[in-house]
Amino acid sequence: MEKQSSSERVRAHVFITGNVHGVGYRLATWDKANQWGIGGWVEEIPDGRVEAVFEGNKELVEAIIRWCYRGSPDAVVKTVTTKYEEPEGLKDFIIRRPSDVNIKNEPKEIKVKTINAILFVHGVIPHDCNFSETKLYDLLWEPVKKHYNLSERIDEIISVNWGHYLAETNEARLDETLSKAEEFIAKQINFRSPPHNTTNNFSLQPWWRSLVQPLQSLLFSPEIGAAIYYNGIAGKTALQLAVYQQIVEFLEKYRHQIEKNLSREEVSIKIRLHAISSGLGASIVNDFLHGLFFPTGERIRNYPEQAKEPIIASSHILAEEKQETVERYLFWCTAAQKKHLELGSIVSMASQLPVLFLSSQRVINTFANQETLSVDEIGIPQQSQEIIWKVFYDIDDLSAFSISPLFGNHPAIEDIAIQMSNNYSNYSSYWVNGIVHTHVAELLNRRVVS
Q: Do residue 344 and residue 228 come from a single domain?
């Protein structure tokens, strides 16, 4: 075949050997080909190999052939053999069964419907702000959805509220009492004036003493208070219960279809989560994803005894109060292990994860051994070279940190430092930032699968 230009269509006939049956290789190939706009098909053949045909732009076809050497997270690829043929004009990419070739001249398409759902989880909303979380989420989503036709490509929006007590609600949830408690303490302890019954024996204040009150106010900021609350068993249970309950209740509408798929050992529908969060919300989202994907990670495959590590479902407080949420969450853990629920992308703003990681003894032991965390424990394929997680932080924000170094500077994670113009204390500043909007739109465009 003559040398092709990068814009010319080519057809590659590929055979993959190794442990590539029953490990999600075909589904992962279908996912990647559709993401890159490549036509063709993929199937398992009786001799243990996977056969695929890719048609499309030469550069993209060569890229997916390189990807075939990695394949799905559980695959172990030995060889990839490629033969170039004349294109037939295939535009759609399908999964076909071996019997399809014998029954029909044309392959039978297995239609897999992907539900792209954005999960919004906010950080602490100040107790004196009567501002709903949906308005906060709209500050980011309204400008982002105008790009890349995202308003049409996103199927569901999950808007989570936690810890923010609104007067119009009938009764405060357990997590919402945090906001009321912080409001009470802030009224009782006024950092700008001395407390009652306090005698001031200093006629002249040293210059550095003027820094103490602002630092005291900072240390008792809502974000710090909520982080301390989340580090306790009761606080973690209350906040996880509030957030998890809303997520699994939303996902419940798809449960019946996925249960049918699980019983038939087929995949006709899957849910792809795109998590966007800020502040403490980013830590809650991390724990949610960790509970879903930790059992499928490489660490568990190598050290199965670590699968016994407690997750939300083992909390006796949660089990007693909201067993329904536990049961639902465990179902979605199973769905994630069976590839019916997958991670699309993560956006974290002003994350406190590096500090809150120290609440886990397992993580402490990992860091003490001079090791880093594994990205596949939160649903990111270990072999991924594509950016999946974007982390935004302002270096002047005392409660915001970079994350990538703690995951071994994995290429799937990108830390992005942005300038908030000394407005980083505003809980909505990250959500309205134009740089954040641009990056989020680009990430969703790549990671949303139709």
A: yes
Same domain, 96 and 152: no
pLDDT digits (tens), the chain, 450 positions = 344 444 688 999 999 999 898 888 888 898 888 878 899 999 999 888 999 999 998 888 998 999 999 888 888 899 999 999 999 888 888 888 654 444 344 444 457 889 999 999 998 776 656 667 778 899 999 999 999 999 999 999 999 988 765 555 555 566 666 666 766 766 666 655 555 555 555 554 565 556 655 555 555 566 777 778 787 787 888 888 889 989 999 999 999 888 888 776 677 889 999 999 998 899 999 999 988 887 654 444 444 444 443 344 444 444 445 677 877 888 888 888 888 899 999 999 999 888 888 888 888 888 899 999 989 888 898 888 899 999 999 887 777 889 999 999 999 999 999 887 654 445 688 999 999 999 999 999 999 986
How many domains would you assign to the chain? Answer: 2
One domain, residues 40 and 164: no
| Interacting residues of 426 by C-beta distance below 8 A, sequence separation 6+ | 420
Q: Which of 103, 138, 159 is the last residue of a domain?
A: 103
pTM over 0.90: no
Q: What is the CATH number of the domain that holds 300?
A: 3.40.50
Clarify whether residues 99 and 231 are in a common domain. no
Residues 74 and 125 in one domain: no
Q: CB of 425 within 8 A of CB of 410?
A: no
Domain that holds residue 414: 114-169+224-447
Q: What per-residue string of b and e applies to 276-308 under the rule 16 or more CB within 10 Å gives b?
A: bbbbbbbbbbbbbbbbbbbbbbebbeeeeeeee
Same domain, 440 and 382: yes
